[in-house]
Design a protein that fits this description.
- The complex is a heterotrimer of chains A (306), B (503) and C (329).
- Chain A is 45% helix and 20% strand.
- Chain A has 306 residues and is α/β, with parallel strands linked by helices.
- Chain A has a 6-stranded parallel beta sheet, sandwiched between helices. A 4-stranded parallel beta sheet of chain A has the order 7-6-8-9, sandwiched between helices.
- In chain A, α3 runs parallel beside α4.
- The longest helix of chain A has 20 residues.
- Chain A is elongated and about 75 Å long.
- In chain B, the strands form 4 sheets. A 6-stranded mixed beta sheet of chain B has the order 6-7-8-3-9-10, with helices on both faces. In chain B, strands 16-17-18-13-19-20 form a 6-stranded mixed beta sheet, with helices on both faces.
- Chain C contains 14 helices and 2 strands, in the order αααααααββααααααα.
- Chain C has a two-stranded antiparallel sheet.
- The two termini of chain C are 22 Å apart.
- The mean pLDDT of chain C is 90.
- Chain C is an all-alpha fold and 329 residues long.
- Classes of the chains: A alpha/beta (306), B alpha/beta (503), C mainly alpha (329).
- Chains in contact: A-C, B-C.
- Bound molecules: adenosine-5'-triphosphate and magnesium ion.
Chain lengths: 306, 503, 329
């Protein structure tokens, strides 16, 4: 028996012992596969490849709460070691934890109530939505330095969602704290939708009401607003449009000087951190309650980096 | 070429569970009216549907003008020169008269043949109506016409194809005597043009007036084909039912009690003006009048189906409030409606559920569940009593022959054991045998002290069955006639009374 | 018997109820907001509603034939990404088809229209020949078409479209935006189809009484395919133009549009029991929705209150219109 075969033997033995330790099965349930979630999902899968023996079963609940619950049930029945949940509705979190029957559960991107996070079996990974709004506010505060009043147009995401509320609160509070008086010219939901925002913007422009800024809860709506303003011949340098998400077309718009700024939410980092915490929890190791992945402001100065 | 324009040879047609036709022959000559007779469910409509391309024969051949033909769909039949008036009316009620007539063969613009030429369509329709001496507005919606007028439109449509064979499946069942005369005049014209006509009816007298030859079907078999001249009513009936029939109008005089229902000064805007009459226990009250006179509307108003602008309804001398069918049923009334397709049948449900639908309450147990065994027992007993011909009580009612569907509706309302039974054209489309049975049942119910109100367009039926007759004309009650004074002339006089007065 | 007739005024009110609702809404908004009755604003309303309007025309025809088409929203998505992917700027690095040569602008337009019409034809074929209900067939394609759109794009938008394509959605034809011109053109086409061609009559006959149509020689199956193809075509046309206007192909574009379009057709008096409906009604329906959205925007009504107001007005409009059918028996 040569040196090589002995080594092989050892390797096999190690694998046999190690396999039960490393063979982790992780279930992932996503609210829907939009662009952001798709890259988050990809990050989870990519991160998983770094850990031998880890298998990841990723499912898409298509915005259907029941389907999400069923997926959790299936994960539990198959005795998965941990579950990563991208909530559809934050109200279902108790039910999900009940169905998880003690399986470690990491929430990602959609934040449940803090009370259910215990830092042992449950954790939350995401970015503080409020910060995204805050960054928009900080950017605008600098932009409007010396002014007292800001007449704003605001396009919100789906009403009643946490990110809609927090992003809106973030930008408004930051600007108020910086000493500005905010005057509403128009404030409505465009349901994250580019075309809806575009239509609303066009009708608003038709009334010739003056405004100083267009704040959007996401980039798609910002791009819609920009499209409408461009065809009405508005100067996008004087009236900044700000978005959130830093999607590829939004970054192009920032580069072209059409969009004043956007905020990068690090989907890849969220996915990676979520998986790391899930693996730790699966092994029974101590975990943090929150895994915060910071937002990053993107402007014409740093857009090349993203 | 043979003397026949069309020959059907040895036609067999199977449906799931039934063999509707068991090798039937039918030969038609140009310029001859060929009557097709038989009890409900004998297979008359099925045979004709094989000819018009709705059904395909399971076996057998069709020879048209000397050539064997295959008729896979209606379009083929219509193109070949065969048209049909269907037993179940087939109007598209939200479209106009002329659109219904020219459906699928609208006249097109000469210059731009993708567009329909409505002007031409209108003038063609006018011309057709003039030829047929019909007084109808080509542009009115079918929905606004009476059943009889819809039927006249169907007839006009079948004629307008200029077909060589015209099939008429019970065209007269919704028509009044005057309109039947009108129809016969049209048939005679077609005959003179050399058209072969198949005429299906349950009315004996019509056969002897219009038909040249008769074929009788029974249970899917051809029993006989003979010239009408060699037939008598009795021989015809015995061919149809396979035995001699008892009395057609088995009216027995039974004691008539006190007033059960009184209608006072009832008005329905647009239909009924100030109608008053009474009906007593044990009485059969006939309601006669021309089609469109408002008889049906009057009954619907009494039953709470139509809003009244004026008038009271009293039962046992006490005023009752009837605003809906539920109120009416609560007051002990039942109503067999005139148009079984529009307001009677639930076509997709079984015979069983169509029978119990008005009486569901009686078949619910204390848990609120249906008592299926009791339902089956009762439905079976009524099926036997009324001899409803159906493969089973679970058969979908749409698959029954027209007459049998009507019997199911009668059974439905008998099942509610009402005190007052309103029957609107209860024997329309029903064969002689079944008709006698229904008359029997009506008589028996009257004998039990029930009040019967029977609307009918058939004068012999009205005269044969009623104790008293209410005659309606143009929305008004123009006469109430006692049985002993009643005769055809008197009734017709009242029925056309104000027509003449206003003319 | 004049006394027995319904008064003429009431007849007119009943017949034109939906247009009266529309007029009343227009009048009250004129009073409430000075910005409402300006040519610019009205054109903006038309621009915003043109896309959904085309959908409503198509699905209106389907509803008249006693069917339903739930797939139109997804057809918008699918056409959007198909058309957009064929006309991305060549200097955009993340474009879908990297090796595509510069295509003339009619290629994506035709590709989009063909895609939508094909989906419609398959819908129609399934409904005509397999006897599955329209609800199910088109629900299937609602899911399938959206899935195809997402798969083609990985859920990423398809941005950076060439300007000569964008002009279709953003440009003007004389004083009128092209998209509005196309909508008006489609209104006329649909009106002519329904009122002056055999196809239109067949729609009403099939919807009014499919058996009557069949025994009278209407080729029901073939016409069903035409009907759903028409609906698919309308949706595809809307999809192409909206994409050009939004300057981006979006796989979620047209989400829930089917509901808006069905609502517009229904508000406009198209009967779900088939055989009844007019193009005028559908246009009124879509304008009611459009004016409603516009009015709420101009008045700055709180987004939460908006939903309640919208729901109430829609239900009220239909109740007011339905009185004409409210007769006993
Ligand atoms: N589509 C069908 N499916 C099953 N059975 C059917 C169908 N159509 C007819 N039948 C059956 O075929 C038989 C013949 O029916 P058909 O309608 O031809 O009778 P008919 O002679 O026209 O009677 P009526 O005088 O009542 O109109 C009946 O037993 C009927 O139940
Ligand atoms: Mg028959």
């Amino acid at each position: 028996m040569g040196k090589w075969s002995r080594r092989a033997l050892v390797l096999v033995a190690v694998c046999l012992i190690a396999a039960p330790v490393f063979a982790q099965k992780i279930g992932v349930t996503l609210y829907d596969r939009d662009q952001f979630i798709s890259s988050l999902e990809q990050a989870i899968l990519d991160a998983g490849k770094a850990f031998p023996g880890v298998t990841i079963d990723s499912q898409d609940a298509k915005q259907d709460v029941n389907q999400q619950l069923t997926q959790v049930d299936v994960f539990v029945t198959k005795k998965y070691n941990a579950i990563i949940v991208n909530l559809i509705n934050t109200d279902t979190v108790e039910t999900i934890l009940e169905r998880a029957k003690g399986t470690p559960t990491v929430f990602v991107n959609r934040r449940p109530r803090d009370a259910v996070i215990d830092g042992v079996k449950t954790a939350y990974v995401g970015s503080q939505e409020f910060d995204a709004g805050r960054m928009q506010g900080e950017f605008l505060a600098k932009f409007f330095q010396g002014k007292k009043e800001i007449r704003y147009v605001l396009f919100m995401g789906q009403l009643g969602l946490e990110n809609t509320n927090e992003r809106t609160r973030g930008v408004k509070e930051t600007l108020t704290k910086a000493g500005f008086t905010l005057t509403k010219v128009y404030e409505d939901t465009a349901e994250w939708d580019r075309f809806k925002a575009m239509n609303q913007m066009q009708q608003l422009l038709g009334t010739n009401r003056p405004f100083d800024v267009v704040i959007c809860n996401n980039d798609e709506m910002a791009l819609g607003a920009i499209e409408a303003m461009k065809s009405a011949g508005r100067d996008l340098k004087k009236v900044p449009v700000v978005g959130i998400d830093a999607t590829p077309p939004a970054k192009e718009a920032v580069k072209a000087g059409d969009m004043a700024m956007t905020v990068f939410q690090n989907a890849k980092a969220q996915g990676r951190v979520a998986l790391e915490i899930a693996l730790k929890a699966a092994k029974g190791q101590k975990i943090d309650k929150f895994g915060w992945v910071p937002f990053e402001p993107v402007t014409i100065d740093n857009v090349a980096k993203y | 070429m043979s003397e026949y324009i069309l020959e059907m040879r040895n036609i067999v047609r199977d449906f799931p569970g039934v063999r509707a036709l068991r090798g039937v022959d039918l030969n038609l000559k140009a310029g001859v009216v060929h009557a097709l007779m038989g009890e409900n469910g004998a297979g008359k409509s099925t045979l004709m549907k094989c000819l018009i391309g709705i059904h395909r024969p399971t076996a057998g051949t069709i020879v048209f003008k000397g050539r064997e033909v295959d008729i896979p769909n209606t379009i083929t039949a219509l193109r070949m020169g065969i048209s049909m008036i269907h037993q179940e009316l087939n109007p598209v009620v939200d479209r106009t008269v002329m659109e219904n007539i020219w459906i699928a063969r609208e006249p097109m613009h000469k210059a731009l043949p993708v567009f329909i030429d409505h002007g031409k369509m209108f003038s063609l329709t006018k011309q057709l109506f003039k030829e047929l001496e019909l007084d109808l507005d080509p542009k009115s919606l079918l929905r606004n016409l009476t059943v009889a007028r819809m039927q006249m439109v169907e007839i006009a449509k079948a004629v307008s194809y200029d077909a060589e064979v015209v099939i008429m499946d019970e065209p007269s069942s919704a028509l009044t005597p005057n309109e039947v005369e009108h129809l016969f005049a049209m048939i005679r014209k077609l005959k003179a043009k050399g058209v072969a006509i198949v005429y299906i009816t349950h009315k004996m007298d019509e056969i002897f007036e219009i038909a040249d030859e008769v074929t009788v079907l029974r249970d899917g078999n051809r029993i006989v084909t003979e010239p009408v001249s060699q037939m008598t009513i009795d021989s015809l009936i015995s061919y149809m039912v396979g035995r001699n029939l008892d009395e057609m109008f088995p009216k027995i005089d039974c004691p008539i009690g006190e007033v059960k229902l009184e209608v006072r000064g009832l008005s329905v805007p647009g239909h009924i003006e100030d109608a008053s009459f009474t009906a007593r226990r044990g009485e059969i009250l006939g309601v006669s009048g021309l089609v469109g006179a408002g008889r049906t509307e009057l009954m619907e108003a009494i039953f709470g189906l139509r809003r009244r602008s004026k008038g009271e309804i009293l039962i046992d001398g006490k005023q009752v409030r009837i605003d809906s069918p539920v109120d009416a049923m609560g007051a002990g009334m039942a109503f067999v409606t005139e148009d079984r397709r529009l307001t009677g049948l639930v076509p997709v449900l079984s015979v069983k559920f169509n029978t119990i639908i008005a009486n569901m309450k009686a078949y619910v147990n204390s848990l609120g569940l249906l008592r299926h065994r009791k339902i089956s027992q009762d439905v079976t007993s009524y099926r036997d009593k009324l001899s409803i011909k159906t493969p089973s009580i679970d058969t979908i009612i749409a698959n029954l022959s027209g007459g049998n569907q009507q019997k199911v509706l009668v059974a439905r309302w008998l099942l509610t054991s009402p005190d007052i039974l309103i029957l609107d054209e209860p024997t329309r489309g029903i064969d002689v045998g079944a008709k006698a049975e229904i008359h029997n049942i009506i008589t028996r119910l009257a004998g039990e002290g029930k009040t019967i109100i029977m609307v009918s367009s058939e004068l012999p039926e009205i005269l044969g069955m009623s104790d008293r007759i209410v005659v309606v004309c143009e929305g008004r009650v123009t006469g109430i006639v006692d049985r002993k004074d009643a005769n055809q002339e008197l009734i017709m006089k009242y029925a056309t009374n104000s027509l003449r007065a206003s003319a | 018997m004049a006394t027995l007739q319904t008064p003429l005024v009431q007849k007119i009110v009943n017949r034109y109820a939906i247009f009266i609702v529309l007029g009343a809404m227009g009048a009250s908004l004129t009073l409430l907001s000075p910005d409402f009755l300006t040519p610019g604003n009205l054109i903006n309303v038309l621009i915003a509603e043109s896309g959904r309007g085309m959908l409503a025309l198509g699905v209106g025809v389907v509803i008249m034939s006693r069917g339903i088409d739930l797939s139109i929203g997804s057809i918008v998505s699918l056409t959007s990404v198909v058309a957009a992917s064929l006309i991305q700027q060549h200097d955009y690095s993340a474009r879908i088809f990297k090796d595509l040569p510069l295509l003339p602008v009619y290629v994506p337009v035709i590709a989009g229209l063909v895609t939508g019409t094909l989906v419609g034809m398959v819908n129609g074929w399934l409904i005509a020949y397999t006897a599955i209900p329209a609800f199910i067939a088109t629900l299937g394609f609602m899911i399938i078409a959206r899935g195809m759109a997402l798969m083609l794009t990985n859920a990423y938008p398809v941005p950076m479209l060439r300007p000569e394509f964008k002009i279709l959605g953003q440009g003007n034809f004389g004083p009128m935006p092209i998209i509005v011109c196309v909508f008006i053109f489609m209104v006329i086409v649909t009106w002519v189809l329904l009122n002056h061609t055999r196809f239109g009559k067949n729609v009403y006959f099939i919807g009014g009484n499919i058996n009557a149509a069949r025994v009278s020689g209407v080729r029901v199956e073939r016409n069903l395919i035409y009907i759903y193809a028409f609906s698919g075509f309308c949706a595809a046309l809307a999809g192409v133009l909206i994409t050009a206007r939004a300057a981006s192909g979006i796989a979620t574009l047209g989400n829930n549009y089917e509901l808006d379009a069905i609502a517009a057709a229904t508000i406009g008096g198209t009967s779900h029991t088939g055989g009844i409906g007019t193009v005028g009604g559908i246009v009124a329906g879509i304008l009611i929705l459009g004016i409603l959205n516009n009015g709420l925007l101009l008045l700055g009504v709180s987004p939460y209150l908006q939903q309640i107001v919208k729901g109430v007005i829609i239900v009220f409009a239909v109740v007011f219109d339905m009185r004409k059918n409210a007769r006993k028996v």
